[in-house]
Amino acid sequence: MRVAVGPLHDADHAAYLALLDLTTSGGGLPAGIENLITLPGFDPPSTHGPAMCLSAHLRRHPTPVGALFAAVPEWAMEHTLGTHRARLAGPLSAATISIYGLAVAAEYRGRGIARALLREAETRARATRCRLATLIHEPHLASFYQRMGYTTATQPTVLLPGTAMLLTQPAPYMTAVKPLHPTVRLQPVPGAPGPVVTGLLPGCDLPPTARFGTHVVG
């Protein structure tokens, strides 16, 4: 089955929003999305305002059968880093993207449409040097995201300059993370509640002797 994935068209707004109502993401969609999708994209990989809005079409099908909504993750903008916040907001926004909604019409599931949407979003993100993708999902979808190269956990951690950011989600959801750049890695660290993302920003690497919650170096 040939699936065409691309930026949302104006004529498909209603169908796109109806599809996103089916999403099982625990992250929630932003308020005012109806207005956001009418905006021109700010900077790539954005397609509409600050967000990436993609839709999937099948040949001879008049409306989209799949939808994806992605944007800068809230944790990249709302973290509590004291005086570092203003300095890190820009680099973190450029380095990370979060999939807030991914949905396929019920009658077309199991045909690779969600996979095509996710791959297109990652391709567009990589093209702008985005380094990490995150998303929140229901536990039963863990195997799907793992096949797509994501690591799923209840408490992954992102190493940042001078601190570490614990990614949380409402129960029973899970967080999935995927490096989009070879310098970004998922590193097991003794004592950490989950995998630790290293190399997201310059200076955010760990020696093999690192222990979570300490300053041990090799």
TrEMBL record:
<dbReference type="InterPro" id="IPR016181">
    <property type="entry name" value="Acyl_CoA_acyltransferase"/>
</dbReference>
<dbReference type="InterPro" id="IPR051554">
    <property type="entry name" value="Acetyltransferase_Eis"/>
</dbReference>
<keyword id="KW-0614">Plasmid</keyword>
<protein>
    <submittedName>
        <fullName>GNAT family N-acetyltransferase</fullName>
    </submittedName>
</protein>
<dbReference type="Pfam" id="PF13508">
    <property type="entry name" value="Acetyltransf_7"/>
</dbReference>
<feature type="domain" description="N-acetyltransferase">
    <location>
        <begin position="3"/>
        <end position="172"/>
    </location>
</feature>
<dbReference type="InterPro" id="IPR000182">
    <property type="entry name" value="GNAT_dom"/>
</dbReference>
